[in-house]
Design brief:
The protein has helices at residues 19-28, 81-88, 111-121, 137-147, 155-165, 181-193, 211-228, and strands spanning 37-50, 53-66, 70-75, 96-101, 104-105, 122-125, 199-203, 231-236, 247-252, 255-257. The protein is α/β, with parallel strands linked by helices and 258 residues long. The protein has one domain: P-loop containing nucleotide triphosphate hydrolases (Rossmann fold), CATH 3.40.50.300. Strands 6-7-8-3-9-10 form a six-stranded mixed beta sheet, sandwiched between helices. A hairpin with a 2-residue loop joins strand 4 and strand 5 (104-105). Helix 1 packs parallel to helix 3, helix 4 (137-147) crosses helix 5 (155-165) and helix 4 (137-147) packs parallel to helix 6 (181-193). The two termini are 28 Å apart. Bound molecules: adenosine-5'-triphosphate.
């Protein structure tokens, strides 16, 4: 979804970590255990300048996502789900408040540090698949490993593993137009998890799919959490898939409601 590409607004740095120090902290945080908090959000607000004034979109968000959870954000259009998800992935920063990802203060990292952290530890899935149309499923997944700087000798086994994990072992060399919507979304999932992120963020990943294909995607998510030790946070409008969640956060007008 194009809104993922919104340019994060620059803000003054409160802490400047050197790249080496940030990388070291990330490595140290690698010891996270299942059930430990992986994402902690404290009193997050986000406003955007509009015309001469500003629009207050997030109004004091608090949440804690634990390792191995499937967390869902639900709420009406415009309630702030995508704005929050962008911040959980370090694509945007809060106007105030704190977001910690595996002990990293996302709200304090500069653009380069957040880019590095995303490249290593976070995967994104878009509503509109975001696959390169001229590349096969295999090449799409391989490309994400190249971009993540994974050594070339690891590409083949990892691409095979990821495509098999999402149930596309027999469709590895098809191009996107030769695949159904559900299959394309599963390629996008394989692509997003190939570099072994700890956190997978998905903005309405089932929105373009019928209920059967949506259920397949949710089954793949469950499988990924189990076999790849990942944590997933996604937005949805679809009430039928909420029961798959470990925790549902309902948003209304920039806040969570009970
Ligand atoms: N960069 C921006 N500048 C101005 N307003 C913005 C910006 N980003 C989001 N908004 C506004 O914030 C509100 C929440 O948007 P957001 O996309 O987070 O909602 P959402 O719950 O994800 O909606 P949907 O379910 O339709 O995707 C909307 O009113 C939107 O117009």
């Amino acid at each position: 979804m194009m809104r993922w590409l919104r340019k994060p607004v620059q803000r003054e740095e409160t802490t400047v970590l050197s790249e080496t120090a940030a990388a070291e902290e990330i490595r140290r945080a690698d010891e996270s255990v299942p059930g430990a908090p992986i994402l902690t959000v404290r009193d997050v607000h986000r406003s955007f300048p509009v015309g001469g004034g500003e629009i207050h979109v997030l109004k004091g968000i608090n949440m804690e996502v634990r390792a191995g959870q499937l967390a869902m954000l639900k709420g009406r259009s415009g309630s702030g789900k995508t704005t929050l998800l962008n911040m959980l992935g370090g694509l945007d920063q809060p106007t105030s408040g704190e977001i910690r990802f595996r002990d990293q203060p996302l709200h304090e990292l500069n653009d380069d540090q957040r880019t590095m952290l995303r490249r290593d530890q976070i995967g994104f899935i878009f509503q509109a698949y975001a696959l390169l149309p001229l590349l096969s499923a295999w090449e799409n997944v391989e490309l994400s490993l190249r971009m993540a700087g994974v050594p070339a000798q690891e590409w083949k086994p990892r691409v095979t593993h990821c495509l098999e994990l999402v149930g596309l072992g027999k469709r590895m060399f098809h191009r996107p137009f030769e695949l159904s919507g559900g299959e394309q979304q599963r390629v996008a999932i394989a692509k997003a998890i190939a570099h072994r992120p700890k956190l997978l963020l998905a903005d309405e990943p089932t929105a373009n799919l019928d209920s059967q294909m949506g259920a397949q995607v949710m089954a793949v998510f469950r499988n990924i959490i189990h076999t790849e030790q990942m944590t997933i946070c996604m937005t949805t409008h679809d009430p039928t898939i909420l029961e798959v969640a470990d925790h549902v956060y309902e948003m209304a007008d920039g806040r969570f409601i009970e």
